[in-house]
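Deviations from the work plan: none for this task. Representative record:
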Amino acid sequence: MVPTIAYVIVSAVLFTIGVAGVLLRRNALIVFMSIELMLNAVNLSLAGFARQFGSATGQVFILFVLAVAAAEVAVGLAIILAVFRHRDTVDVDNMNLMKW
Amino acid sequence: MLKDYFPILVMLVMAVGFGVTMIFLSSIAGRKRPTATKESPYECGSIPVGTARIRFDVKFYLVAILFILFDLEVVFLWPWAVLFIERLGLFGLVEVAIFVGILLVGFVYAWRKGALEWQ
Amino acid sequence: MSNSAAQLAYLAPELVVAVGAVAVLALDILLPERSRRLLARATAAALLASLAAVWWLYAGEVAGRPERLFTGTLVRDGYSLFLDAVFLLAGILGALVSARYVDREGLQSGEYYALMLFAVLGMMLMAVSAELVTLFISYEILSLSVYVLSGIARGRAESAEAAMKYFLLGAFSSGFLIYGIALIYGATGTTALEAIGAAVMSRGLFGNSLLLIGMALVTVGFAFKVAAVPFHGWVPDVYQGAPLPVTAFMSAGVKAAAFGALARVLFTAFGSLSAVWQPALWLLALLTMVLGNTAAIAQTNIKRMLAYSSIAHAGYMLAGVAAYTAGDVALGSVLYYALVYTAMNIGAFAVVLVVGREGEGNQELSDYRGLAVRHPWVAAGMALFMVSLSGLPPTAGFLGKFYILNAALRANLIGLAVALVLASLISWYYYLRVVWLMYFIKPGEAPPTLSGAPSLRLAVGMAAVLVLILGLWPSAALNLAQVAALTVTAGGLPVIGRP
């Protein structure tokens, strides 16, 4: 059996890649995909923990995370689309209508 | 523990090896007479029209979004169905009816607002 | 399982709002185009009915003894009832200030009000959550609704841009929150707050790195939502770009909800680790107060000024949470401040709406020159809110700050108390500048004509009366806050573990 710590390490690495993607990439869609990667990293560690404890809490949590991620996709893409219609770009560096 | 993964490793090596071998053999053994038709991307036999990098119509996006939302909500029906007979009973049935009812309101809302119109 | 049905009665306020939100959606497609105005009234009716349910539960003396619902995933106690009342106040004031604006700007009224109700529902569920999975879902109900609300004025590029910034940073922060929850689950094997607290004690997890990292990540997730420095980057842009009534609503409601949940998590689950998180919150509070107030001075747009002011007020409330060792005094002061802040901040935004013009016009500080000459009542209201926000007597803002100061001193956080006073002194400059502009400067050549919708004036009036009552006769509300805080800090309640 694969020890739980292996899941934790892989999920931490995936989460870090996601965080790095959010901080380094400039295209809103890619930033958003990095956020989804973070959520999936969480799912991996939840699955690992759920197996270790033999409890359903972690597995049920994964279902909820998936549903929330889908809702976020719907809302997020709609918002990014709205921005694209106004600005013809989704580069986060160009989001500068309000600055002092 | 790692022993259990050995068949997978064997499978991986065989698959990669087979692919590499075939490509290598055909590249040294075959004759090459490139023509414009042969160079173009393969699209199930039909002649390619324009570039692949076009903007998709927003209509696709809306349908896809609605699909993913309702598709994922169904994930909650599965654990309910598994436990329905043994554990949940009438109360579970009422709860799931409310859940589906809320989804239904959302669906009718999207429908009436014209999100499902293709024009 | 009739027992489950009986438990639903304890959730009456939440259920009323949930039904109201779905009903508003349904009404939006059933009603003909011209009677869409009914939606605002339906929204207000749902919120008022929910407030009545809160009062009913108070009258049934539910406040004093926590009632665990649905195998301990939710808890109905004085704490959640008090917070529910705060959220409903934010919702009612928010709906009142929205009515005219939604018509004038041609927003989708069905979606607008349904989302507002869903946001209030998310806040209320956050307050009753006694378990991290439920808390996360409630947090997302709230967040997703508010993301869409801030971008609902699709015609304006600023609104779309604000929504995108809010969404990307909000989703980023909820990633941290949920990863923190996963790690806490990994360290303790449970997601129920009380069981986590018990596991930390019984298994001696004080130095467990999974647990500590999880706690830090959860705190970061909430720090984003309450707009604590250095996680505040989104606030000025989002508050400025979002439709004004949405800004008013979320500046008070979202903050109160995030504070309510953060305090419950830290007090219930991580009380025994306070030595770790107290210094961190101390630092966050200090940075937030100082940076919020100093940046507000430089602003010329009133929405942006109020955005930085709201960051500063998050700092004051963080100071209240950091005063953990003062127990119920600390938590009570935070609750009281949440109530006070909701009244005075939405009041201030309501005046900005009265002065504002179509398409978010008339929002520069210079537009307030000489307002007192032409519109003495509006100016008087604004002056009251500004004085209250700056924390001067005899207003509610003064008492709210006083109790937080009291809690900080009891917890021996002398340095933080001094910083709070100094930060407030800085804030006098920019709040009282508005008063000075209204009363002592001659109006510009084009005097502002006001949009005087009755609902808007009602909102200003309600907020002003509340600010005065909470400032002059605070004992009733303060008692409620204290009782509410006690239900969380009392401890000694039987721990319900989840399988």
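Chain A touches chain B through 13 residues (CB under 8 Å).
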